[in-house]
Amino acid sequence: MRRILNWLLVASLAFGPEIAMAADYAGGPGGSSSVGTSYQGEAGIGARESFDTVRPGRDALSSTGVRIKDVTTIKGVRDNQLVGYGLVIGLQATGDSLRNSPFTEQSLQSMLDRMGVNVRTGNPRTKNVAAVVVTADLPPFIGTGSRIDVSVSSLGDASSLMGGTLIMTPLYGADGEIYAVAQGSLAVSGFTSQGTSESLTQGVPTAGRIAGGAIIEREVARATVETDQITMELRNPDYRTAIRVVDAINAFAIRRYGKPVARENDLRTILLTRPARLSSTRFIADISDLPIQPDMTAKVVIDERTGTVVIGNEVQISTVAVTQGNLTVRITELPSVSQPAEFTDGQTVVTAQTQVVAEQEGGNFAYVGGTDLATVVRGLNRLGLKPTGIIAILQAIKTAGALQADLVVQ
User: How far apart are CA 114 and CA 127, in angstroms?
Assistant: First the structure.
């Protein structure tokens, strides 16, 4: 009996890490599974044991959060882009000048030729026509005869497309085939008004949109989703988010179908096994509304052109001392008149006197640091800087290694 106990003690010391790893992978705090045991299957990187779908814990299903359909897509279900070239007519003398836009004149002549009007010998100088590029997105599973929205943008020197009508324009796919035909009146939100000495422009008057302006003439090859294996992809790849999606789906599937159906493949893709006698459409609809709490990486996004700074909730800054002094250099040119002396042949000339003044403000040190977003924002606001100064400081903090986040400069 003593020999058997000694053997068990040696075995527990020798195989303790493997047993602990297997228990932790099975789910639940402290290595205990709250629903059942794990299944044999595919192994992870560096794992010594093989596991398949893991049963989730009791708190996998949440009552609040973001729906799975808002953070994932189904592989193969995608849009296709369409583009076409056409003419917009009916403009109030705001179209292309045919002399500066020869392609507009050629297109106008070709259109009239197809309608039986010969204008080759003439010299049209209309200002009511504009050449445009028409773009649209072809949704998946859309059928012939359906309508989609199109965007219209000026190609020449037209000043406004307001009040114009797009004439029949074929829309081509990447393979060169015609998939839709667009036509209709434009809705332009921007406008321009010009007088003798002043002009006013609001928005973009050279771009518009036609709601339901294109009719589908050809269908694309439909994605195959009625399969036993369905691949789901995350819009923002993340390991923790993928695990939470898998746990939420499996917790729901065990209650609904009696077995888990999801397995994480990597940080982006999740493999789903469709239950028997259930269509893919109904299966995806069942799991799409499940709420989860997506995770995100610590990231700071900076747009130097507009002075926009966006700081993520997980951003942390190690404690650093920061100072910034604003240097202002002012150069002033003061004109002065130089008069020649009396009874001389000199001439009166205008000379300039230059004044240069340099001022520097600030220079006090301030501590910046924090483990949450509120503390970081308070530390940056304590400096009292404009967005350009905050951008420079964030870049310097990143260089110093104190910004524990990815810095994205646009």
Answer: 21
CA distance linking residue 380 with residue 358, whole number of Å: 26
Q: For all residues of the chain together, what is the average pLDDT?
A: 77
What single DSSP character describes residue 223?
Answer: P
Tokens of 323: 């100072």
Q: Are strands 308-311 and 299-303 parallel, antiparallel or unpaired?
A: antiparallel
Residue 189 pairs in a beta bridge with none
**In angstroms, what CA-CA distances link 209 with 108, 185, 189?**
22, 9, 9
The secondary structure of residue 308, as a DSSP letter, is E
256: left (phi over 0), alpha (psi -120 to 50) or beta: alpha
Are residues 231 and 272 in contact, defined by beta-carbon separation less than 8 angstroms?
A: yes
Backbone angles phi, psi at 93, to 5 degrees: 55, 30
CA distance 377 to 383: 10
| pTM reported for the whole predicted model | 0.66
Coil vs helix vs strand at 272: strand
Q: Strands (DSSP E) along 254-307, which ranges?
A: 262-264, 269-273, 291-292, 299-303
* Cβ atoms of 170 and 135 closer than 8 Å: no
Which stretches of the chain drop beneath a pLDDT of 70? 1-63, 121-122, 194-197, 323-334, 352-373, 380, 382-384
Residue holding tokens 């009239």?
A: 112
> 403 - beta bridge partners?
317
Query: Count of alpha carbons within 13 Å of 5, Cβ hemisphere only?
Result: 2
